[in-house]
Write a structure and sequence with these properties.
Elements lengths: L7 H4 L5 E6 L5 H12 L5 E5 L6 H7 L6 E4 L8 H11 L10 H15 L4 H15 L5 H11 L6 H24 L12 H9 L15 H7 L4 H4 L4 H14 L8
Helix pairs in contact: 2-4, 2-9, 5-9, 6-7, 6-8, 9-12
């Protein structure tokens, strides 16, 4: 089923929750925002952000050209993963996706920063993807230049980025193994949290869901997929198994990207 997109200029006139998300690709930040509202059964109006496209109307509305952005009624646009998460919690407190206890809450937000934040897993994996196509003669060079410009390509060495990626993969795998070994099949505590949802959407940067579940353009699938055997050997299989289970048990399928 196609997404019922509403263009920016029309969306600006509408009440309710408007959610700007990337069209055509499983942008993990966009898909994570969608997951928050979908799990809570909060209705939202999909507004397209076009990667490498003209997003001038979006910039005029929200002050920037990236996605996701959540705009509720006349409230200011929310452009960060944490602000969007707190909005979802406010609109529908249950099921809670932020732990009630201070210690678990602090741990979850720490892991989320290492996943979604600057120089987190998503950021570093994007830089690794850009480096690959910028240095191997790929026909996707223009994509690599676009991504590299947005994520500060060249501010760190490729070796520094790869070391950080390796450390983060180990960090998430260790935490998840600890939880499963204790009989709790979630990243934090004994129930689903925002970290489970965001990990599931960010795991597309290792291996996207199967085409029938994630109907993305083939060149995008190639760009997203971690294909180097040496890197795949660093990925604990439980990380992708957990992603598959969260999608199967908690999120609508297939993904609606177009």
């Amino acid at each position: 089923m196609a997404m019922p997109w509403v263009e920016v200029n029309e969306a600006r006139t509408l009440p309710g929750l408007r959610l700007v998300v990337s069209k055509g690709i499983p942008n993990p930040w966009s898909e994570g925002a969608k997951a928050l509202f979908d799990v809570k059964k909060i209705p939202w109006i999909p507004v397209p952000q076009r990667v490498m496209g003209d997003n001038s109307a979006l910039a005029d509305w929200t002050g920037q050209t990236s996605a996701p952005v959540a705009i509720l009624d006349d409230e200011p646009p929310r452009t960060t993963w944490s602000a969007i998460l707190y909005l979802a919690e406010r609109l529908a407190p249950e099921p809670a996706l932020i732990p009630a206890g201070a210690e678990e809450r602090a741990r979850m937000f720490g892991y989320l920063h290492e996943l979604c934040g600057e120089l987190g897993f998503g950021w570093c994996r994007r830089l690794q993807m850009a480096h690959t196509v910028l240095t191997n003669g790929s026909p996707l060079r223009a994509v690599g230049e676009y991504v590299g410009a947005r994520y500060g390509y060249g501010l760190q060495t490729p070796q520094e980025i790869e070391q950080r990626l390796e450390d983060l993969l180990r960090l998430f795998a260790t935490q998840l193994r600890r939880q499963y070994d204790a009989g709790h099949p979630f990243f934090i505590g004994t129930r689903l949290s925002a970290l489970d949802l965001y990990w599931s959407t960010f795991a597309t940067l290792i291996e996207p869901l199967r085409p029938e579940m994630c109907p993305m353009y083939e060149e995008s699938r190639h760009f997203y997929t971690m294909s180097d055997p040496a890197w795949l050997a660093r990925v604990d299989p439980l990380l992708l198994e957990h992603r598959d289970r969260i999608y199967r048990d908690h999120l609508p399928m297939p993904l609606r990207l177009r």
